[in-house]
Amino acid sequence: MPYKFRLTKEKDYNLVFKNGKKLSNNYFRVCFLKNNLGYSRFGIIVSNKVSKKAVVRNLLKRRIRGILSDNLSNFNQNLDMVINLSPVVKKDLPFNDLSAGLLALLNKII
Questions:
Q1: pLDDT reading at 32 higher than 90
Q2: Which one, out of 7, 28, 93, 104, has a CA that is 20 to 30 A from the CA of 22?
Q3: Does the pLDDT of residue 78 top 80, yes or no?
């Protein structure tokens, strides 16, 4: 996913958490807020509750980034989104289930 589509600053995360709306399903919690840019930006959080191993957390982040980059053309609204992975998700969750859960939640936002 190109760098311009990522939330990188702590103040951006805090702004989304403080003022944004929230939606959730079994696998994800998403906070989102309108921005004044011409594109959407995404932040991904995978906590230690999902796995104590950084390798597993980074694997899940890469999978989520892959899902988002494949579907960037669908996100034509100007939103900042923070995607938080639920602790019930484990490494062995099939990619198709992860993808379907995320896209179903994001389609509710769009």
A1: yes
A2: 93
A3: yes
